[in-house]
Write a structure and sequence with these properties.
Elements (H helix, E strand, L loop, with lengths): L7 H13 L4 H13 L22 E8 L2 E8 L2 H14 L4 H6 L4 H4 L8 H20 L2
Antiparallel strand pairs: 1-2
Helix pairs in contact: 1-3, 2-3, 3-6
Pfam family, one: SufE
Protein name: SufE family protein
Family: Belongs to the SufE family.
Length: about 140
């Protein structure tokens, strides 16, 4: 497990820059889909009810482990856009300390326009994913 080499703010800034390269939301969705394809394989045996994120219309499993005081996330989803969204959150927050995660306002989601460009059910799922990541950080502080 590698810790993040960039600060949380630098990573968030990179994400904002990447999304600003696309003018159309369709292109941003395509980028999210590509991000989802980059997720590490998620073991079938970890697709359990305990790892399901409540509040998502599609199924999203989130697993984590602690290594050296940092939280490393792994996830999967049965929906391609949702998989891209959780992949984006993992890219930003995996390998961070609980304190770093809890100090984040997750405003990167607003800065890239993600929340307002999702359907209401996907936006609720995004909020649920963020809440679960924060909950895991709080439990492991």
């Amino acid at each position: 497990m590698e810790k993040q080499t960039k600060s949380l703010q630098e990573t968030e800034s990179d994400v904002v820059d990447e999304f600003s390269m696309f003018d159309e939301w369709l292109d941003k969705y395509e980028y999210l889909i590509e991000l989802g394809k980059s997720l590490t394989d998620y073991p079938e045996e970890k697709k359990t009810d305990e790892r399901l994120i409540n509040g998502c219309q599609s199924r999203v499993w989130l697993d984590y482990k602690i290594d050296g005081g940092r939280i490393f996330f792994n996830a999967d989803s049965d929906a391609i856009i949702t998989k891209g969204i959780i992949s984006l959150l993992i890219r930003i927050y995996s390998g961070r300390t609980p304190e770093e995660i809890l100090s984040s306002d997750f405003s990167v989601v607003d800065k890239i326009g993600l929340k307002e460009n999702l359907s209401p059910t996907r936006a609720n799922g995004l909020v649920s994913m963020i809440a679960r990541i924060r909950e895991i950080a709080a439990e492991n502080r």
